[in-house]
Specification:
Length: about 375
């Protein structure tokens, strides 16, 4: 008998529940930006409808988001919807998905089972890889203790399970280590003075002295940066960013409707250009997701995702400029929604090594045997 067709993304389990939360998540984004504090109300909403378990394989009680090849469209839609409603929350959820995916891919069955129980119990996971420029990487000493800190850790102070990269030797390959953290433990968010993404509570976490039991080590050294998954996975943060772009487009359209200025030829042209750029971003993300989440992604999946993240960044910057020009000064004055959305999106667009990503993609194009028109044809 033929396999049943996969559900359309909008009908995929989990998405209806997520859609029902969107008004609350969008309202919470306003309050959580003002306070700047952890988005506890938004996270509670996700917990309530079981979305923290969605990245788990069905056998572990989840929906397979992030681990099942067929689940990419649903995950992509979820990340876009979250980014549209609440960009800091989307960032946190993307990290949660990434961490659970890495544990399920590279960990033992017992580690995956334990992580699944924690996620089903409402714990938030994160991947913290970034080190402060000039600081030694987080070390895993011969005596089995961590030494050093991570910076730019989203969810510092309220993530319950942090998947960190550490090294047995400073230039050695990164080893994933899953560290359980109590609320507030070792976190310092005082340096998070960013213009936007305030509620992502992105801070420094000092791991010095934490004893590492063998069960905390996930996979082998080098698994975290294994290609093409490492670069291809960029489609997930690009999906969240794409949601942020959609939110800016929505705010621009609302403004033009409310002010009755949408018929003006200049305003109409800018709205049309913004709609074009937003759809460009969505198409890139969905094509990158399909390649990245194929059963056996090849090097083209990494190159494609590297191009996709650049295309989404370009589209986002264009839409921001168009919206700010159309709305004018009001776009920079709170409580206009564009004031916060612009800060959040501009901040979240800063992701690691954009020049390197573009250069790597260019290297793939340079070395590929196919003609430019068929460069990506072999992939899904
Ligand atoms: C809201 C938010 C949340 C985050 N949360 C997390 C998290 O939970 N976990 C985590 O690990 N990280 C997190 N980060 C950090 C993130 O992953 C990036 O590391 C960070 O945003 C990159 O910042 P950057 O623009 O300074 O990047 P960089 O990579 O330093 O790039 C800055 C510029 O320098 C260029 N450049 C980079 N390297 C070189 C070089 N060697 N020589 C010359 N030029 C170079 C780049 O192309 C770019 O033009 C978060 C960041 C943000 C904004």
């Amino acid at each position: 008998m033929a396999e049943p067709p996969p559900p359309l993304p909008d009908q995929a389990p989990g998405l209806a529940a997520l859609r029902s939360l969107l008004p609350d998540l969008a309202a919470a984004a306003v309050a959580e930006d003002r306070a700047p504090r952890a988005p506890m109300a938004s996270l509670a909403c996700l917990r309530q409808v079981g979305l923290l378990a969605a990245p788990l394989a069905p056998g572990l009680g989840g929906l397979g988001w992030g681990v099942e090849p067929g689940a990419a469209p649903a995950l992509g839609t979820a990340l876009r919807l979250l980014g549209r409603a609440n960009l800091p929350l989307g960032r946190l959820y993307e990290g949660h998905v990434n961490a659970l995916r890495l544990v399920q891919r590279h960990g033992t069955a017992a580690q995956a089972q334990a992580a699944a129980e924690q996620a089903r119990g409402g714990q938030l996971f994160a991947v913290w890889n970034t080190e402060a420029p000039g600081e030694a990487p987080l070390a895993l000493g011969a005596e089995g203790r961590l030494d050093g800190r991570k910076v730019l850790c989203s969810g510092a102070g309220f993530v319950g399970q942090a998947l960190v990269t550490c090294r047995a030797a400073p230039a050695g390959p990164p080893q994933l280590c899953l560290v359980p953290l109590a609320p507030g433990m070792r976190a310092d968010v005082s340096g998070w003075t960013a213009q936007g993404m305030r509620a992502s509570a992105t801070g420094a976490v000092d791991f010095t002295g934490i004893a590492v039991a063998p069960a905390m080590l996930v996979g082998q050294p080098g698994d975290y940066t294994r290609q093409p998954e490492f670069s291809a996975g960029a489609w997930r943060f690009a999906a969240v960013q794409c949601g942020g772009v959609e939110a800016v487009l929505a705010a621009l359209r609302d403004h033009l409707r409310q002010t009755g200025r949408g018929q003006d030829a200049n305003q109409a042209a800018r709205l049309g250009q913004a709609a074009m750029a937003t759809e460009t971003a969505r198409l890139w993300v969905s094509a990158a997701a399909a390649r990245a989440e194929a059963a056996l992604p090849g090097p083209e999946a990494a190159a494609y995702a590297n191009l996709a993240r650049g295309a989404v960044e370009r589209a986002a910057l264009e839409v921001l400029e168009l919206a700010q020009r159309s709305v004018g000064l009001a776009a920079f004055l709170g409580p206009h929604p564009l004031e916060r959305l612009g800060r959040d999106l501009a901040t979240y667009l800063r992701q690691p090594g954009p020049d390197r990503a573009l250069a790597e993609a260019a290297g793939f194009v340079l070395g590929a045997a196919a003609e430019p028109g068929t460069l990506w044809e072999d992939a899904p």
